[in-house]
Write a structure and sequence with these properties.
Layout: E1 5-11, H1 15-28, E2 36-42, H2 49-59, H3 61-64, H4 70-77, E3 82-86, H5 92-106, E4 111-116, E5 119-121, H6 126-135, E6 139-147, H7 164-170, H8 178-185, E7 200-203, E8 210-214, H9 215-220, H10 233-243, E9 247-258, H11 269-287, H12 292-317
Parallel strand pairs: 1-2, 1-4, 2-3, 6-9
Antiparallel strand pairs: 4-8, 5-9, 7-9
Helix pairs in contact: 1-2, 11-12
Length: 318
């Protein structure tokens, strides 16, 4: 097997983060002996991201990375080491990543490292992640533990699949009440596990910002579900993986930094709320069709919240 790895990075108006992500990855993998390449998917950015990233690749990479192998240096010089896929529309997380993943598979990548642009790689993560995959056949996705830039654990990197009641709480004012907040917190595995003397933990939902898997897995489960634009991608991915009898894991021996939800901050509150409700409703209808009350409740709440936000926006303009 070739053991080639494609690093797929989704970019939307965040070229500085993307460039820093690339730079950090290359520095952390200077002595990596296997072949890897980058596929940067630009979701129709409006700030010349493609030009900025391309300029960074051509002018700055050689200055920043001094110990790449001769083969990698040659690839950088002829620009085949990087592929920038510029989309004519913002397709969101699922379809944007799928386009990059399909291209990676077409180019022969056996493994995929799926990254958000706001990930900073601080150490060689490919060797441990690949070693885990080779020695744990029953696992689909494996991820490093993630920290915020303040060196606090990003608890989203290891979650249990939510119960119907969990979802209900998250879409009500109850989530702010300490008693119910404790119920929600039980989903965050790293808040409730002693991490000493263990190498990895089983998880349901990883963070979509940093995941490693085989290309064959994504083909087998028919990639990300493109019926969502943003949110609930990991939930749907987990349902597909579970149906194959596989599990996901968080590797505790390696880590990366997740700077935060930089992409979502560029959208309006109205858009973000709408995406959240639409994705939640799609997920419930597809995988929890029996939850009639919850689906009905979310549909009513979605209409009321969006009307309020629209009214608030109009009032602010006036």
């Amino acid at each position: 097997m070739s053991e080639t790895v494609a690093v797929v990075i989704l970019n939307y108006n965040s070229y500085e983060d993307t460039n820093n992500c690339i730079k950090s990855f290359l520095k952390a993998h200077q002595n990596y002996k296997k072949v890897f390449s980058f596929i940067i998917v630009d979701n129709n950015s409006t700030n010349n991201s493609v030009e900025k990233i391309n300029k960074f690749i051509i002018q700055d990479i050689k200055k920043e990375v001094h110990q790449l192998t001769e083969n990698y240096e040659r690839n950088i010089l002829n620009n085949s080491f990087f592929t920038i896929l510029k989309l004519t529309k913002n397709y969101g997380y699922a379809k944007g990543n799928n386009l990059g993943i399909r291209l990676a598979i077409k180019k022969g990548a056996e493994y995929l490292l799926i990254l958000n642009s706001d990930i900073i790689i601080t150490e060689n993560i490919l060797d441990p992640l690949m070693k885990f995959k080779k020695t744990h056949a029953g696992y689909a996705l494996v991820s490093p533990i993630l920290y915020t830039k303040k060196d606090i654990i990003d608890y989203n990197c290891a979650r249990k699949s939510p119960s119907d009641f969990d979802i209900f709480i998250e879409f009500t004012f109850l989530r702010k009440i300490p008693f119910f907040k404790k119920i929600i917190d039980k989903r965050y595995i790293l808040k409730n596990v002693d991490l000493q003397n263990i190498d990895f933990i089983d998880i349901d939902l990883p963070s979509g910002s940093c995941m490693f898997c085989e290309s064959a897995l994504m083909k087998k489960i028919n990639f990300f579900d493109e019926n969502t634009f943003l949110y609930y991608e990991e939930n749907i991915l987990y349902e597909k993986i579970k149906s194959e009898g596989l599990k996901n894991a968080l590797l505790l021996s390696v880590s990366a930094i997740h700077l935060g939800a930089q992409t979502t901050s560029k959208s309006s509150n109205y858009q973000i709320v709408n995406f959240n409700y639409q994705s939640a409703l799609y997920y419930l209808r597809k995988f929890r069709i029996h939850t009639y009350f919850l689906i009905g409740y979310l549909k009513i709440r979605q209409k009321l919240i969006l009307k309020y936000l629209k009214f608030k926006s109009i009032r602010k303009k006036n």
